[in-house]
Structure prediction request, 387 residues.
Amino acid sequence: MKYNFDIIIDRANTNCIKYDLRKAVFGNPNVLPMWVADMDFETPDFVRNAVIQRAMHPVYGYHFKDEPYFKAIQSWLRRRHQWEVEMEWMFFTPGVVSGFAMAVQALTEPGDEVLIQSPVYPPFHQAAGQYGRKLVYNPLIYSDNGYVMDYDLLEQQAKTAKLIILCNPHNPVGRCWSREELTRLGEICIKNGMTVISDEIHCDLVLPGHKHTPFASINEDFAQNSLTFHAASKTFNLAGLATSTGIAKNPVIRKKVMDYVHSMESELGNIFGKVATETAMTCGDEWLGQLLDYVQGNVDYVSDFLHHNLPKVNFFKPEATYMMWLDFNDYGLSEDELWRKMTQEAELGFNRGSDFGKEGTCFLRVNLACPRENVKEAMRRLQKVFG
Ligand SMILES: Cc1ncc(COP(=O)(O)O)c(C=O)c1O
Prediction:
């Protein structure tokens, strides 16, 4: 491997949420933090060098996103996902969350129903339910073969709902939705006039053996009925640079959302986000291949460890994302007791499952984007308390 993902970097005292808010969040500053979805790996050297190069220029004034920037994203989507996106379909947002939150406002009215598929990333709940919009749950089915969508319920709900926020791939359950699954969802949406916002921030973190399908790439109807969000931030560890992309082929959807973004004075972003995204999208393929192999190694390590040592923890291996979604229900603990044991006895900082929806009660989400040694230490701590 050209890149070394085993290096342990001391992130403490860098204002980073994952390490520096441990006491506030877990009541214990010593937890091994494997929660917030950023990585403990170095942002790739070629990205850092490009940012440093720009930082050497002594003026950090207002900037705009130029053609090479959008071309780099366009080229990335073409070569990684075989998705042909025209330059004019793309626009900047200062994050995927702020992007979809603004898009919900732009595309719905107070009183409109907005669907989400829980358990799902907490900001989906907030974005779907704020400013008078009505949050409606279309929970995933936790089947013997893993998580699947509840199409029967969706058929019913789509009759009145205006919009669905799709998580493609899905955080926290790690599903990389297949073309068939997305097609079935998309057809229900078309039949009922329900627009799709597809959050594809994890689309480049699809693990070996799986393939991401951009929702809007499936057919022309889906392209016309959707808005996608993409970013380099999760993949290349750039979340602090607050830079992402909205993509809409449909000019009416695009105009509504872009107008809203402008009305919030949110269309500029920061100069380093531009440089980093453009560089990552241009030069990042080899690094990403090695990252995904390493993350898969972490997933395999945890899976084997749990099977052999903690068989009461249930889980499905993720197909995408660097997260694992662990089910502790067989321990028969209340969620508060599980949390106490995890944070105070095992000293592990995982995400609390119920933050993703009530279906996540007594689950924990573990972030495996960290050096193998930390993963091993986490498993040792887990075994001591839950073994
Ligand atoms: C599904 C999903 N969307 C969006 C985000 C965050 O996006 P941003 O930092 O661009 O707002 C995350 C981060 O974990 C995520 O998991």
User: Anything to note?
Assistant: The chain has a mean pLDDT of 97.
